[in-house]
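B., you asked whether I could sanity-check this one before it goes into the benchmark set. Here's the sequence:
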Amino acid sequence: MIILNCYNAPMKARSPLRRCAAMLCGVLLVALAGAAARAGTGPHSALRVTVSAEVAATVMVEGHRRKSLVPAVRVVPGDEVFYTLEIRNTGSIALPPPTVDYPIPAHMRYLAGSAVGAGAQVSFSLDGGRSFGRPESLKVMAADGERPATAADYTHIRWQLKHILKAKSVALARFRAVVE
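And here's what the prediction gave me:
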């Protein structure tokens, strides 16, 4: 099961920014439909993945300006969005090392080198999540032959955790993308 926290983005928003935020959340929900089956069925039925999207903002804390991550309620082209996947074992027994696939949302461009997860091997797909590989091994056919894939070519990210996920525990995975 995958849950997307859109921080109550209004679906019938009037301002262009609110419409964009609502559209982004809607696009993310559609993009996650395929990933939901991967993360919460079969032997991993106790696995829950919650996704949140945030942007960096300057906020006032005790009278001082500080940079902080806040819910991505309003985004415009060029904004950098920080995605956090909370991979939680809700069951009472440990799970074998889980694999979580996540589609790069429509209208977003993945930022190279930003996908991380403690104790996880990260790989990428160029073909809608059918196959995955490390960045250095991915190739794309171009008009003048084969070329190395770039971050803009990626369609999905995969985190393969290297260790079991203990009962009632959580692992985090993150990446950044820019609104196109």
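One thing to flag: The longest helix spans residues 16-39. Otherwise nothing jumped out at me.
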